[in-house]
Amino acid sequence: DYYHTLSVSELIIESGISPSEVLVLRFEYLEQDMRLLQGKLCSEYGYCDELPKVPRLRLEGRKRKTRGSSRRSLLKRLWRMSQVRRGIELRYKDDLALMGFDSDGVTPFD
Predict the structure, then answer these.
(1) Is residue 110 pLDDT above 70, yes or no?
(2) Residue 93 is inside which H or E element, if any?
(3) In terms of DSSP H, where are the helices of 1-110?
(4) CA pair distance 63, 72, nearest whole angstrom
(5) Is the pTM of this model over 0.85?
(6) Eight-class DSSP state of 62
């Protein structure tokens, strides 16, 4: 289906929402982004109650080598391949910028 092929930034724009109106919550910076969300809710909507803390749980259980960790290793290896990385950066450049990722700094798989 068409919507499953869109990047996040394309979906936002197609929905008529300005990217400047979007606050992205990133797993890598979840606590920091939650504080920004709390400030925005308070200043723009008058909702100043403290947001609940996000639980810090390992869904896969105790720390051990799992299929999930091998998948992450594969993603890291793929991300280091310049052609693969460049293709992802070209296709999702607006998403990466919207989420604060760039090729010279923090990346999704570092």
Answers:
(1) no
(2) helix 93-98
(3) 8-14, 30-45, 67-80, 82-91, 93-98
(4) 14
(5) no
(6) S
